[in-house]
Amino acid sequence: MGCRFFPNEMPDFVEEKEEEIATEDDSLMKLLSMPYSALSERLKRAGLDLKDTVLSLSLSLSLSPLMYTYVEEAWIIWIVTLGSKSCQSESSRGLEVVVETWGLSGQCVRDFSLYCGALGTAFLQFKAYQLTNNKDDLNLCSDIIKACDSLCSCSGFSHSSAKVLIQCIEDARDGTFLCGRAGVCALGAATAKQLGDEQLLTYHLSQFKEARERFLLMIFERYWGAAHGLAGIMHVLMHVKLNPEEAEEVKHTLKYIIKKQFPSGNFPSAAADNEDHLVHWCHSAPGIALTFLKAAEVFGDEVFLEAAVNAAEAVWNRGLTGWHLAKAFACFVVDRASKLIAEGEMHGGDNPYSLFEGIGGMAYLLLDMTKPTDAKFPGYEL
């Protein structure tokens, strides 16, 4: 992972200008200096174009092995023409192919997870619907969720078989939003509510309850972080109504996590880890800071706010954060990411079309940046 970065050569700050500045050789500076009202529309258009490309490519990979040649061609087209009219026409053509592939494939996906699978594409469609109110995005989101639900409903093992341990692991995965069925049920319920489908809403809520009841806190390794650790579990619990006894248990657990905080403000990734080396959303300060901010909001205890501030300091000192840097990175994605990936100078991701490891995440970032004050971490914040 150490080699997967691109040097940050952007200036610390670029002042916005009402008039267009003359930057013949630096299109990135032109983007950075645009008034944000104009820039947000540019990011929105680029995000929606890229969303259609993600839809075409990711679902083609998930739904039909015969589509690899098309995927390669479409990826090259996107790289050359992102944000142009030709890109829009190619995205539309790709969408038509996917519709045909979707029908021919029997609506069967290979990976139903939000993290790297088809549910991430559905989540991106839902985000686009929230911005544009386009019911086509919402309906397609619902179709993808149904296919994901079909796969994860059939992926378990029988407890009567010799694979009881594998069943336990499957049950534990079911309880996670990012990699399990809980994510399918949660997004399914939100989509059904927007569609006004009470029967489908009831179904997804009942399935979510079942997944939650079967969820086991696996003992192979005790993680602390947001993705699949103790902080993430506490974060979800703080979004539901707790009785006094439950609230005390959550607060007690959170204070236990604080005891593990390093002097730097960072956290270890797991109970067996005593090294202050990772600064990742999944396992350390970036994700856990969000949990403690939520705790300060819910419980009003200064100790949680202090822990959140200390964690945020660790992120600030050792990572990229802040409003201007988020804006600069979004502009960088629009202006240069596709070219750098095509030339092999920047890593395209292990799952190059997914929400968390690919261009799906780029599209989500651009859509989020159109209204940055409403931005929330996908699959974690409500």
TrEMBL record:
<keyword id="KW-0479">Metal-binding</keyword>
<feature type="binding site">
    <location>
        <position position="282"/>
    </location>
    <ligand>
        <name>Zn(2+)</name>
    </ligand>
</feature>
<dbReference type="GO" id="GO:0031179">
    <property type="term" value="P:peptide modification"/>
</dbReference>
<comment type="similarity">
    <text>Belongs to the LanC-like protein family.</text>
</comment>
<keyword id="KW-0862">Zinc</keyword>
<dbReference type="InterPro" id="IPR012341">
    <property type="entry name" value="6hp_glycosidase-like_sf"/>
</dbReference>
<protein>
    <submittedName>
        <fullName>Uncharacterized protein</fullName>
    </submittedName>
</protein>
<dbReference type="InterPro" id="IPR007822">
    <property type="entry name" value="LANC-like"/>
</dbReference>
<dbReference type="GO" id="GO:0005886">
    <property type="term" value="C:plasma membrane"/>
</dbReference>
<dbReference type="GO" id="GO:0046872">
    <property type="term" value="F:metal ion binding"/>
</dbReference>
<dbReference type="Pfam" id="PF05147">
    <property type="entry name" value="LANC_like"/>
</dbReference>
<dbReference type="InterPro" id="IPR020464">
    <property type="entry name" value="LanC-like_prot_euk"/>
</dbReference>
<dbReference type="GO" id="GO:0005975">
    <property type="term" value="P:carbohydrate metabolic process"/>
</dbReference>
